Amino acid sequence: MPAEKSNSFDNEVEAFVEVDPTGRFGRYSDLLGCGAVKKVYRAFDQEEGIEVAWNQVRLRNFSEDPVLINRLHSEVDLLRTLSNKYIIVCYSVWKDEERHNINFITEVCTSGNLRDYRKKHRHVSIKAFKKWSKQVLEGLEYLHTHDPCIIHRDLNCSNIFVNGNIGQVNNCFVFINWYFSCY
Hints:
This protein is an alpha+beta fold and 183 residues long. It has helices at 8-11, 66-81, 114-120, 126-144, and strands at 18-19, 25-34, 38-45, 50-58, 90-96, 101-107, 149-152, 160-163, 168-171, 178-181. 25% of the residues lie in helices and 32% in strands.
């Protein structure tokens, strides 16, 4: 009887650059996007077996402004409470004291933002435009009827993300894009 071979999968380790404190999410080095406030990396949810986006905000950029740091915390905490199919889902949030970052894991939109998607796909029917518009408006209606009311201050095609395989757009409402209306 031949000796049983060890399963080669048991010896393989994901090539994560970083792992969240729970060990559930692993970040790859692939940069998906970069803005003035944050970087977004490709990541993997080992529990659900899905790709996600690892958003990273360097707090060193705001070390002189504790009010802004508190606002960043508030916005991410609020994002976690939102639940609408046209708003990007936030799965986890934590502060990395050692690296001076706020990290949060969100849904990844497979086709990037609407601006780049439209450059790639130039011939789109009016029916598709209407569908996307309706989705954006439903997301905005959800935010405007939220308590407190949330108003997006930077709605543009770079902040609307596309899952091209299902033709769905998702609004990105994170970091310095919101105004909380209390009146």
